[in-house]
Amino acid sequence: MTDEIKVKDSNGNILKEGDSVTLIKDLPVKGANVTLKRGTLIKNIRLTHDEGEIECNAEKVKGLVLKTCFLKKA
What we know:
This protein is mostly beta strands. It has one domain: SH3 type barrels, CATH 2.30.30. Helices cover 0% and strands 38% of the residues. The chain is built from no helices and 10 strands. The chain has strands at 7-8, 14-15, 21-23, 27-29, 34-36, 41-42, 46-47, 53-56, 64-67, 71-73. The chain has a 3-stranded antiparallel beta sheet with strand order 6-3-10, with no helix packed on it. A 3-stranded antiparallel beta sheet has the order 7-8-9, with no helix packed on it. The chain has a two-stranded antiparallel ribbon with strand order 1-2. 15% of the residues are buried. The model has no long low-confidence stretch (mean pLDDT 93).
């Protein structure tokens, strides 16, 4: 019996540790005064304990947590 969390992107594709994703919406980053633009590629994602969130490092922001509803698998 496994208690694995299935993390899915906005299209229902299953995401795994190390996958690359693309943003489907412009996202302002709180506290960093930066907006990540739609189409930005995020590489090497890390899964969290929450199936609705992933951790990643973007080009301008390190240690970012993004909601999976704003992502699609690249």
